[in-house]
């Protein structure tokens, strides 16, 4: 039986959401606390953004979820490709990409290493440095030298860019279309790769230059934007309601279901991040693997507790006011503490 969140749990989460919004962490935000049996509490604070008027965000406000793309798009699509025999986690990613000539040291990283951030690839990713290059992007990335010893944990976006390119090649379909079919199957009808139309129901993100328009409806991540908004590491827009639907689908799938089996295998630690935290396949693992979570740079988070059937969704556009991590830390810390308790 799932362990429901108590009224005290949700009251504390709601109050902390209000506090971080009042302190300027974000114009507003939404937290959803739910369980696999359909119990759900939606908490909101603030406004979508000043330019959107006085309306509060809701479970149906569309947010740029940034690096949650990794666990909402790339991770489950890799799982499907493993299930279908198209990808072997322990073979070099170059085997899943168009043929390349010559040495490709970064292409020797395995799919498992890429998805677990243990590839040793160069961490800094500036696709603008490849402007005007004669080679395709996958080859440019694969020809880069390694920066660390494989097996070393370091969060690296370019690994997920390569995974997205590999999925496109193997499926002979654009990544956004392959992902859209999956989201439709899961009932996530408000989850898309951008761009999306600017409306008051879409949360704007950062103003890059004083006096210039804000980033609004297009990918905040520069590398995803250079790829047309469709990438393995970032670029997806979703709503709190859809992320809750996704979390419930993951937690409801048992190990006989492909989604459940993939989740179970992904919650096995692959590398230590710091004391008390490990990296699974994509997910950060806490409390001995009983909790899995991931953050997005724009101010989003998703937490799963398979053993208690609980999940938490956080959607904010905190990057609207600058770097989000420090400002959102109290809310994220409370979310982890709350979902870990029984």
Provide a compact summary of the structure.
This protein has 342 residues and is an alpha+beta fold. The chain has helices at residues 7-22, 69-83, 111-115, 137-143, 157-171, 175-185, 222-226, 240-252, 258-266, 325-340, and strands at 28-35, 40-46, 63-64, 192-193, 236-238, 271-274, 277-279, 284-286, 291-296, 300-305, 310-316. GO terms for molecular function: hydrolase activity.
Describe this structure in words.
The protein has 342 residues and is of the alpha+beta class. The chain has two domains: 216 residues, DD-peptidase/beta-lactamase superfamily (Beta-lactamase); 102 residues, no CATH class. 33% of the residues lie in helices and 15% in strands. It is built from ten helices and eleven strands. The strands form two sheets. An eight-stranded antiparallel sheet has the order 2-1-11-10-9-8-7-6, sandwiched between helices. Keywords: Hydrolase.
List the helices and strands and how they pair.
Layout: H1 7-22, E1 28-35, E2 40-46, E3 63-64, H2 69-83, H3 111-115, H4 137-143, H5 157-171, H6 175-185, E4 192-193, H7 222-226, E5 236-238, H8 240-252, H9 258-266, E6 271-274, E7 277-279, E8 284-286, E9 291-296, E10 300-305, E11 310-316, H10 325-340
Antiparallel strand pairs: 1-2, 1-11, 3-5, 4-5, 6-7, 7-8, 8-9, 9-10, 10-11
Helix pairs in contact: 1-10, 2-5
């Amino acid at each position: 039986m799932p362990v429901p969140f108590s009224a005290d749990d949700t009251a504390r989460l709601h109050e902390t959401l209000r506090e971080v919004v009042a302190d300027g962490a974000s114009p507003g935000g939404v937290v959803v606390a739910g369980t696999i049996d359909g119990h759900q509490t939606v908490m909101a604070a603030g406004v979508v953004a000043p330019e959107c008027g006085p309306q509060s965000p809701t479970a149906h406000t569309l947010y740029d979820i940034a690096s949650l793309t990794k666990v909402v798009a790339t991770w489950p699509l890799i799982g499907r490709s493993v299930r279908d025999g198209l990808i072997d986690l322990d073979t070099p990613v170059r085997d899943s990409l168009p043929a390349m000539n010559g040495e490709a040291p970064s292409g020797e990283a395995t799919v498992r290493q890429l998805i677990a951030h243990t590839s040793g690839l160069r961490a800094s990713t500036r696709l603008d440095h490849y402007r005007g290059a004669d080679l395709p992007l996958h080859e440019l990335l694969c020809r880069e030298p390694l920066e660390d010893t494989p097996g070393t944990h370091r969060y690296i976006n370019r690994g997920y860019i390569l995974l997205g390119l590999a999925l496109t090649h193997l499926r002979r379909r654009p990544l956004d279309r392959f992902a859209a079919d999956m989201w439709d199957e899961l009932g996530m009808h408000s989850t898309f790769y951008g761009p999306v139309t600017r409306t008051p129901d879409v949360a704007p993100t950062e103003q890059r230059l004083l006096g210039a328009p804000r980033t609004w409806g297009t990918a905040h991540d520069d590398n995803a934007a250079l790829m047309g908004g469709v990438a393995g590491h970032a670029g997806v827009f979703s709503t709190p309601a859809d992320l809750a639907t996704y979390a419930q689908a993951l937690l409801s799938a048992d190990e006989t279901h492909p989604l459940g089996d993939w989740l179970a295998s992904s919650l096995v630690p692959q590398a230590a991040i710091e004391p008390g935290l490990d990296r699974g396949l994509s997910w950060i693992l806490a409390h001995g693997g009983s909790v899995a979570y991931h953050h997005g740079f724009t101010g989003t988070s998703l937490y799963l507790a398979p053993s208690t059937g609980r999940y938490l969704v956080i959607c904010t556009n905190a990057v609207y006011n600058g770097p989000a991590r420090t400002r959102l830390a109290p809310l994220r810390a409370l979310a982890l503490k709350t979902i870990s308790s029984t």
